[in-house]
Amino acid sequence: MTKIDEKLELKLAELVRQTHEAGIPVMVLFEGVTASGKSRLSNELLLALDAKYTHFYATKTPSEEDLRMPFLFPYWKNLPKKGDLTLFFRSWYANLIDYKYHNLKPDIFKDHHKLLSEIKGFEQMLLNDGYRIIKFNVEVKEEKRQEHIQQTKENPLTRWKAQEYENAIPTKIYTEELKHLIKETKDIAPWHTINYTERGQAVNEMYELLIDELEQALKDKKKKEENKKIDGKFSDDFKTDLFEDTEDEMSKSDYKDLLPELQQRMRELQYALYERKIPLILVYEGMDAAGKGGNIKRVRESLDPTGYEVNAISAPTETELSYHYLWRFATQIPRTGHIEIFDRSWYGRVLVERVEGFASTEEWQRAYDEINDFEKALTLEGAIVIKFFLVLDKDEQLKRFEERQDTLEKQWKITDEDWRNREKWDVYLEASKDMIEKTSTDEAPWIIVPANNKKAARIKALRTIIERCEERLWGVKRY
């Protein structure tokens, strides 16, 4: 019988301390049929590592409540922060097999290959951001596996576990599905197969593979830091006519007549969306002082407060910076039937972070595709995603800035940062133009809203939301 090599265990523990200090997030996945040895290997690994920055998450068959959230929501929620390690006992692969075998969300996922595509994008995005994903497929000889199951059945304290085995996806189906998934995803983050027939040999093999992966992760991190560049890549003489239309006509009397009617319709649609379990996501971006807050207020003014939430996005906190930039948004996505409103959003990566140099050149350039994939996943789950970009001209912005500065109750709305941003008007315009052109998709198009007239902007947003919701609910267009 092979003994567990203590030197390998100590070396692995030291490497995990190094990846912790280097800020490298590590994700270790264990897949395999029931009673293959996954739990034993997982426990050996957990015992070898420092519990302060090691976490464990076990995937289970989704409950009815779980199915009200997006497919990858549990994994976004349990992402390790920079420097931590999370062990996933079963993972998004087991989750996909569950969806397929139990025919979950059949009205949405008629083709489960779409979820495989989502998994590939998720892994690639994390790898690009410096995550290390280490995937193990644990196998065992059938004779040994049956021995494990029999021992579990004979022990009164573990008999419940044997009952779980009986309710699991049939071994043959799980094995065939996982074999296909391994083939489809091995080129993104490679798979490692471990045979658990003999404990000591299996544990040592796991340690050796983890050591190789983490040593490479440290080398990759160093190389990435050496090659890091920060450049917004802006034009010397940028011009665009994309934002020239800043005026829409709207009289006070028309506004007074239209607003209550549209707000009442919004409340009715909120209940219809809830009944049909359709999530609605509203994204507001635009120029400073364009009226995003006032626009959002009119949208939600008549809504039932138990069914919506507003996320006013500011600079990321220290905790938020320790995760992938999409983490703080992905964990705030509404469950089915609810409304989430983002006052500024994930587009900060390609706007303020690009302009101010908070993101590297490589980070903001790849963000367009990452955001498109993120929004595509939301719409794939049935969400309605509506994105507004509010525009006003430079003179109107100055007028609003000065009004805020001179009005005591509005002074909190104006900051030194607003004035600094105004000095960078042209580069923000270029960043906004690039954003709209590269992230306006069939699933989630941008709606440019002229905002010199606040009342007209509010009515346009309300009409757009109503039209999109009615079209989804009943296939009709009103405006």
Automatic annotation (TrEMBL):
GO terms for molecular function: transferase activity. It comes from the Bacteria. The keyword Coiled coil applies. Gene3D superfamilies: P-loop containing nucleotide triphosphate hydrolases. Keywords: Coiled coil, Transferase. SUPFAM superfamilies: P-loop containing nucleoside triphosphate hydrolases. Residues 204-231 form a coiled coil. Residues 6-221, 250-470 form the Polyphosphate kinase-2-related domain. The keyword Glycoprotein does not apply. This is Phosphate--AMP phosphotransferase. It comes from Macrococcus hajekii.
